[in-house]
Design brief:
CATH architecture of the largest domain: 3-Layer(bba) Sandwich
CATH class of the largest domain: Alpha Beta
Helix content: 10-25%
Radius of gyration: 21 Å
CATH topology of the largest domain: Glucose Oxidase, domain 1
Strand content: 15-25%
Number of strands: 15
Largest sheet: 9 strands, mixed
């Protein structure tokens, strides 16, 4: 396998993230493309015909859940007060046996509650999650979009019925990694994406309205060796230079098996998630993170078919800037 990590023809000045971000925004912005009132961003790229076609990709009827378990053994370690889910029982079988629940004719039951940050495990970033110089998606003032009441304009609930379409797995980990895993800090360039598509064949072709799932293998490593710094630490991921590819392909969403989607450390001397800054508030691109792609990847590799029907509706928490999801790939 090749381990070439050369970047795309777009070169970066590591000392000038501001300039690189501004230039990428000028080339890639979708502001106004779908009207001044738009709240759906790149989900506008999916048509009803696209969804109908995606349904024809189901051959075996075999489903794959792409979610991590939502439990206290998850990846979070407290960064910016993000914790793992805390699951608490309100009523139990012990209570039922003791007859203390107050129900008639011997009825008993169990109830529970969960407390968690909405982006602590497998999730979508909403369009109100990231701002660029005080501006949110489509040029709105950030303070007029997200307040203490939540995202009053592009809350994740606006995407609740739109996350359905053709999914494409790009297993960059298998194409360029060692034993299916890319090392931390590996920057996935446009060349890597295109070479992966070529290696996988025609069913991996990426086009308008697709949900692109990029497997790096980092989650495979974390599940085997322990979470370590998975949440927020060094990771393989997309290079900042892929911004133009993300825009030009007109995809609906991009997903990785990593905590932060883009390569970490970031590709500038001083920066934090600069590709997010271009993709979310300026492109209106939906980003999925911490998706468990291994079983799907094994099945795709076995029969050489990398496209499928994807249903990935976020939990429609009103005003949320991100939400948990249990994505299902149906092949």
């Amino acid at each position: 396998m090749s381990t070439d990590t050369t970047t795309s023809p777009i070169t970066l000045d590591r000392t000038d993230p501001e300039g690189a971000i501004a230039a990428a925004v000028a080339r890639c912005s979708n502001w106004g493309r779908w009207g001044d009132d738009d709240v759906h961003g790149t989900l506008n790229n999916i048509t009803a015909a696209d969804r109908a076609y995606a349904a024809t990709l189901v051959r075996s009827g075999r489903p794959f859940s792409l979610a991590l378990p939502f439990d206290n053994d998850g990846p979070q370690k407290g960064w910016r007060r993000r914790s793992n889910p805390v699951h608490t029982m309100l009523d139990t079988g012990t209570d039922a046996e003791a007859g203390v629940q107050g129900f008639p004719h011997g009825l008993g039951g169990a109830d529970d509650v969960i407390s968690m940050p909405l982006q602590c495990s497998t999730q979508w970033d909403g369009l109100g999650h990231i701002f660029d110089h005080g501006r949110a998606w489509n040029g709105r003032r950030a303070g007029q979009v997200v307040t203490s009441d939540g995202d009053r304009v592009t809350g994740i609930e606006t995407a609740a019925d739109r996350m359905v379409g053709r999914g494409v797995l790009l297993d960059v980990g298998r194409t360029f990694g060692t034993d299916g895993e890319l090392p931390d800090g590996f920057a996935i360039t446009t060349a890597h994406l295109e070479q992966t598509i070529e290696a996988q064949g025609s069913t991996a072709a990426v086009g308008r309205g697709d949900f692109v799932l990029v497997r790096t293998g980092q989650l495979t490593r974390a599940l085997r060796d322990g979470w370590g710094d998975y949440a927020g630490g060094a990771a393989p991921g997309l290079s900042f230079t892929t911004a133009d590819w993300l825009r030009q392909t007109d995809i609906a969403g991009i997903v990785t098996d990593t905590w932060g989607f883009e390569v970490r450390p970031n590709e500038f001397d001083v920066a934090f998630q600069p590709l997010h800054q271009v993709a979310i508030p300026n492109m209106g691109l939906f980003i999925g993170e911490m998706w468990h792609l291994d079983d799907l990847a094994t099945a795709c590799t076995a029969d050489g078919r990398y496209e499928f029907l994807l249903t990935a509706a976020p939990l429609p928490v009103t005003g949320a800037v991100g939400a948990p999801v249990n994505p299902i790939a149906l092949r």
